[in-house]
Write a structure and sequence with these properties.
Strand content: 5-15%
Number of helices: 13
Order of helices and strands: EHEHEHEHEHHEHEHEHHHHH
Largest sheet: 8 strands, parallel, barrel
Structural class: alpha/beta
């Protein structure tokens, strides 16, 4: 198992827009110190569409060096190009990452058999775990239940990051495909735990990692009432992520909290004043920021 709380990391940038590798290393260590069992590097939260291959590989290596001895490092190597994805996966494997997050090919809308072929080709270049990322809201197509079963037959496809609130489909990932189920939307962690889920690939754990880790621990120990109480108390964290397209809001939150992760790359834009105030309000209600 890759861990229960996997934080999909933001990528810190310098004032000139270049990657701030030192701040990235500091943030990775902070996350592991505050509840994360592992980090996902160069996912969408890390602005992967605007990172060059060299930047991604530099970040993978930095994560392995910074926290690889005490947390898992999952490399986001999936794109809409199978050959490119396999190449990145092979290079990341050489750098020592523990596993890979592979998103459903986006924009080009392959048929379901094309999705299976995509994952098979990528799985062939590594023997380490692959997490399939199903996010139909962004890639347009859903990995259908029958396709999940086929993916489960690929030896090193071991888990699914499911950003789809269809609980019937989520149950099938566990019961029919035999794969580890991770919530791909942070507010799905608790309902997915009720279906046998492992945990989540999270964004809000940048600021509430310990609370999420405790919620999962309590649930798995049988204290569902207290686990649900924590989930309910995390409402402002779920609200925060809806302020603006990810990772605009979480980067604003981190900057407010003093982590200085910089801005975002176009076509994303930084949170405006009204959005900043909404983010600040969420942080205050979470108790992680003292009101001014």
């Amino acid at each position: 198992m890759l861990g229960e709380v996997l934080t999909a990391m933001v990528t810190p940038f310098n004032a000139d827009g270049s990657v701030n590798v030192e701040r990235f290393r500091e943030l990775a260590a902070h996350l592991v110190d505050h509840g994360s069992d592992g980090v996902v590097v160069a996912g969408t939260t890390g602005e992967s569409p605007t990172l060059s291959d060299d930047e991604k590989l530099e970040l993978f290596a930095a994560a392995v060096d910074a926290v690889g001895d005490r947390a898992t490092v999952i490399a986001g190597t999936g794109t809409y190009d199978t050959l490119h994805s396999a190449h990145l996966t092979e290079r990341a494997h050489e750098l020592g990452v523990d596993g890979f997050l592979i998103v459903t090919p986006y924009y080009n809308k392959p048929p379901q058999r094309g999705i299976v072929a995509h994952f098979k080709a990528i799985a062939a270049v590594t023997d380490r775990p692959i997490v399939a990322y199903n996010i139909p809201g962004r890639v347009v197509i859903n990995i259908e239940p029958e396709t999940m079963i086929e993916l489960g037959e690929i030896r090193n496809v071991t888990a699914v990051k499911q950003a789809n609130d269809d609980l019937h489909q989520a149950r099938g990932i566990v019961e029919d495909a035999g794969l580890d189920l991770y919530a791909g939307d942070d507010n799905l962690i608790f309902p997915f735990l009720e279906l046998g889920g492992v945990g989540g690939v999270c964004v809000h754990t940048h600021v509430v990692g310990r609370q999420v880790k405790e919620m999962i621990r309590l649930y798995k120990q049988g204290d569902r009432v207290e686990a649900r109480r924590i989930n309910d108390a995390l409402g402002p964290a779920y609200e925060l992520l809806k302020v603006q397209s990810n990772p605009i809001a979480i980067k604003a939150a981190l900057n407010i909290l003093g982590h200085d992760v910089g801005g975002v790359r176009l076509p994303l834009v930084e949170a405006n004043d009204e959005e900043q105030e909404r983010v600040r309000d969420c942080l205050e209600r979470l108790g992680v920021l003292v009101p001014a």
